[in-house]
Amino acid sequence: MDIRKLQKIVVTALEDIKAKDIEVLNTTKLTALFDRVIIASGDSNRQTRALARNVHDKVKEAGGTVVGTEGEDSGEWVLVDLGDIIVHIMLPTIRAHYNLEELWTKVPKRSKKSTERDESEADE
Question: Does the global pTM surpass 0.70?
Answer without folding.
Answer: yes
